[in-house]
Amino acid sequence: MNRTTHRPSATVHGYPRQGPDRELKRAVEDFWAGRSSADQLLTTAADLRRKVFQQLADAGLGEIPSNHFSLYDHVLDAAWMLGAVPPRHLAAAQDARPGTPEHTLAVYFAMARGTEQAEPLEMTKWFDTNYHYLVPELGPDTAFRADPGKPLTELAEAKLLGLTTRPVLLGPISFLLLAKPAPDAPADFQPLTLLDRLLPVYAEILDALHTVGAEWVQLDEPVLVQDQPPAVLSATARAYRDLTSATRRPKLLVASYFDALGDALPVLARTRVEGLALDFTGPAAANLPALAAIGGVPDKRLVAGVIDGRNIWTTDLEQSLATLATLLGLAGQVDVAPSCSLLHVPLDTGREHDLDPQVLRWLAFARQKVDETVTLARALSDGRDTVAAQLAANRAARASRSASALTFDREVRARAATVTAQDTHRPQPYPERAAAQQARLNLPPLPTTTIGSFPQTDALRSARAGLRTGRIDHAAYRTRIEAEISEVIAFQEKAGLDVLVHGEPERNDMVQYFAEQLTGYLATRHGWVQSYGTRYVRPPILAGDVSRPASMTTHWYRYAADLTHRPVKGMLTGPVTMLAWSFVRDDQPLADTARQVALALRDEVADLEAAGAAVIQVDEPALRETLPLRRDAHPDHLAWATEAFRLTTSGVRADTQIHTHMCYAEFGDILPAIDDLDADVISLEATRSRMAVATELAAARYPRAAGPGVYDIHAPRVPGTSEVTDLLRAALDHLPADRLWVNPDCGLKTRHWAEVRPALEHLVTAARDLRTTL
Ligand code: GLN
Ligand code: ZN
Q: Which amino acid positions bind L-homocysteine, per UniProt (predicted)?
């Protein structure tokens, strides 16, 4: 490649799929509900794709990707393309004639959502993003088969618009490592052992794409930014040696994102693939010195991810240009891109009419990021002068952000600066606290409680919608919520639970509810981002310094506490989770943002305590999921995360009991961090793993109280009393009765009262029966 003749151009890895008004969600859900045909769905989808192709072309991208669209999930699409369809899902589509769109969609959505007879594929988080993918199931019997229909169709659709796109496929190493053993495979089956069987299928797909004119194909290998053993690195080398050996094939661009490639960089650099796409933002900035250290990739094209593809801030274009200037000397050809698919950000700031225009220009959603990418490419290819206006506007936007009162609140900063070790530690050791709490609460052994939320009924949802549209006023809404609280309290008293909750009926979402009441957070009107399938969320934007103008929960707490003589838990979302499920600021370390949120929540804890709460729960379900992808970054991360939790909770008296809750059972290496939270009681999911978590806690000599869940709230099933008893017995083998709590796995908001009532009654009966045997 000739360095002097290539004009850097702009490209992206992928674009939001949903359409400007989430047309895709409606189209897919209409199809599911039988309100539209397979053809109608496919036509809508093709229409949306065409619009995106055209829009990206109009915006000035030099190369447009295809096959990043999905009706549900791109990992599911990859499984489909490779013929990795579980037999149970094929069987689920018996009604439709094979080969028809009806049949294809029936099988596809059976994999995604399951059917009466067939469990869906498992869903899990896509790296450290809030997107969820479907986990392919592979076993020794998996017979791969190339089905390049989707990438071919999308390539052809773009061709009709006069565009030669770059199909994006999940790469073979990532596909195998993201998969799990099929139900009938040995549990220790390693999908990577299927590599030799898989590569010819990839080769066939690449050949098919080449035949119809694809010049480049992108293979995504994000698993390579995680710590991988030598076996994976050598498999990577082998895979790309194999895929580049074909005489007739498209050029290959191997893409990675979310972190630096580390040891995988020299491995990929040595392969004969024609291009690498690397992330140079956030922790992945480490790719730059690493690339320099190996002497660059002079024989390759580098697609440089210099715009953060997963956050929503206007890029510092000058800084990106500086990075690009260095990169120009390190590759045969450099093109500009966001760091990853823009799937993780909302579509367009242009529709956020409720946001202050001053603030709006700090933000860049997908559409704006495309423009930024084009601007950078133009600066490289045609000179800075050609984009002088854009650069000036960018500088002004960045300056207005750093000078704003929203991002700099003197009082908040002063308070955060004076936090001492004393503020983050409870003065009394746990045994002393436990005694004081027992004296105050006088709970029986095996105390029973719930995780916080009770069923969110239709009446509640409709009241919330009514408040939004003005159909009902605040007073009517409040009355509705209070009625719900009364019902929840009355039920818990009757069922005989020991520590009650108010049921969280006022919360639309455990993060949004608080974000709406804290300064520093912004809410969007159209900022939808795909969480999974047809589920979209609107994450709040943590834009400024955080403070709490007024108490957020004490009104509801008091209302509930006045209805009963039993203790009612105060209920808050923890600082780490408040960050994890929001877009966070990029102009200061996460640790600083966490500290500000923690201080605001600390005040709320103090208010709850003053209102009489003897038990306060601070939920941190996101603690583990925020972990950096590279293990060497874990200690620093966990240090500030646990400190923020302790800053939130350690201002209370010895006899105030702090609970926390996490939704998962496998701690792996974060158990020391969980210990570091110093919570008096922790509740966790444990039912499905049959109390494995109790064994783990015991093995680690966890010194405080724990409530491993005994009611699986993810399914409508109601556990019988003896089943709960068995689980509690299993837990008692590992944890002493005076430190074992009895509770469900998680909140009950997604369940129905008809299930929750008997399930909690059984839970209380089981605990009471067991108490008599102690
Ligand atoms: N307190 C919350 C609830 O019960 C906890 C939810 C969660 O852990 N995700 O709904
Ligand atoms: Zn939970």
A: 451-453, 504, 619
